[in-house]
Amino acid sequence: MTRDIDIAVCAADWEEYKALTDALLATGDFIQGTQELRYDFNGTLIDIIPFGEIFGRDNLIPRSSDHETIINTLGSIDVYNNSMTLRLNSEPALDLKLPTLPGLVIMKLLAWNDAYPNRQKDAEDIYFIMHNYQHAGIEDRLYEEEVSMLLEENFDNERAGIRLLGRDMARISNSDTSRAVLEILVLETGEHSPFNLVTQMAYKNHDSPDNILALLGKLKLGFLQGLGQQVNPEGNS
After folding, report:
1. Residue range 156-213, pLDDT digits in tens
2. How many helices (H) and strands (E) does the chain have?
3. How much is the average pLDDT of 83-95?
4. Nearest CA to 116 among 72, 64, 80, 85?
5. Rounded to a whole number, what is the distance in angstroms from the first to the last CA of the chain?
6. Cα separation of 2 and 165, whole Å?
7. How far is CA 49 from CA 6, 15, 127, 197, 213, in A?
8. How far is CA 2 from CA 86, 152, 180, 198, 199, in A?
9. Among 44, 73, 166, 192, which residue has the least CB neighbours within 10 Å?
10. Which pLDDT score, from 0 to 100, does residue 67 have?
């Protein structure tokens, strides 16, 4: 578990965002945190991050006061447009949109890259999702729609599942997001890579760096195939 909760809210501008946060503070249950965009709700830290028209040209959210860049929101629209809806209450209706696992990996991968080496938890979370995607309700897809991929992976559900995860990530990514994600995956699996992502993934997991690198290669392979590129199972175009 992490110590805070991240909530993204669609906002046209900083005035609209401030109207929301002012209303939350007025309840008396929220207090301003020590960092901008962070609030304390009865001891629980909540980051309330705006997205939408408030985006800058480069998907960078500026600070409301001095316009200093503080967060990269690349990928947020993709994840929102492909999110799943959880109904918390019926009368009145209260729906909460949650990122899918592919969307979560996209956001965590971009966040990790932006703030390395300070986002090791994101690296660990990405590994956890990769390792367990085979158990995330995709078995019918693997054995009914992706039999050829299973054969290529010698019926290794973990590696086939990771390839499917990569495909699902590519499917929901626009051109800017897919370009950024692919750059990270290529760098972190290349022959001359510093292997920063592999190293941080391996830190708390009982897995070898060589195997983690191979799994990341499968994620990259699936992502490339999801983009429609002709790539063989060994990752060569």
Report:
1. 999 999 999 999 999 999 999 999 999 999 999 999 999 999 999 999 888 999 999 9
2. 10, 8
3. 95
4. 72
5. 39
6. 23
7. 7, 14, 25, 25, 32
8. 21, 37, 25, 21, 20
9. 192
10. 47
Q: Which of 175, 196, 185, 174 is nearest to 231 (CA)?
A: 185
pLDDT of 237 higher than 60 = no
Place of tokens 């060994």: 234
Buried b (16+ CB within 10 A) or exposed e, 144-153: eebeebbebb
Classify residue 63 by its DSSP letter.
Answer: P
Most confident range, picked from 46-50, 59-63, 170-174 = 170-174
Question: Contacts for 41-47 with beta carbons within 8 Å, 24 or more apart?
Answer: 44/4, 44/5, 45/3, 45/4, 45/5, 46/4, 46/5, 46/6, 46/7, 47/4, 47/5, 47/6, 47/7
Task: Compute CA 220 distance to the chain's CA centroid, rounded to the nearest angstrom.
Answer: 15
Residue carrying structure tokens 């897919």: 178
Residue 199 amino acid letter = T
Quote the pTM value.
Answer: 0.89
